Amino acid sequence: MSDIRLIVGLGNPGPEYHNTRHNAGAMFVENLASYFNIPMKYEAKFFGFTGRGMIEGKDVRLLIPTTFMNKSGQAVGAMCTFYKILPEELLVAFDELDFEAGIAKFKIGGSSSQNGIRDTVRALANQKDFLRLRIGIGHPGHKSRVTGHVLSKASEKEQAKIDGAIDEAIRCTALLLKQDLVSAQQRLHSYKAED
Predict the structure, then answer these.
(1) Alpha carbon distance 50, 28 (integer Å)
(2) Catalytic residues
């Protein structure tokens, strides 16, 4: 059984960023909340939309920060401090340039160039050993094109792959909470959205 108590989905706030690649983490938590009928509401003290509900018999909180991506730690840190949530009880979902669309993977700790993850690590007093859900959005091919890539919407075909990976990640998150990380990783890491 997993000890995850808080699941966070990273993204940028505002309608202009909704459904952009950079908001893949936020999309995951939105869909997770919908799938398990967990209502989300804005809470200013946590700088985001929050929810609380049962997933596979586990009492879990959800958070979608409404800060910009590079300030994600403000929301995560506030919620972890208030509810005394330890890094090992945290799952953070975010967009991953290093994976093509249609792939998602769980990982504990490690480094990341993703701004939201870097800020979350800072907010947790540089503790990196929290669980991450990396949702592939593909790489545009050159670093000069990364900003435009992550802040734009995926093509219809590419979005369908991202949606497929998110759907599978929801099922695997339920498996994580019901069984363990190894079982969830084995299932999720063998998934790849079809063309």
Answers:
(1) 14
(2) 22
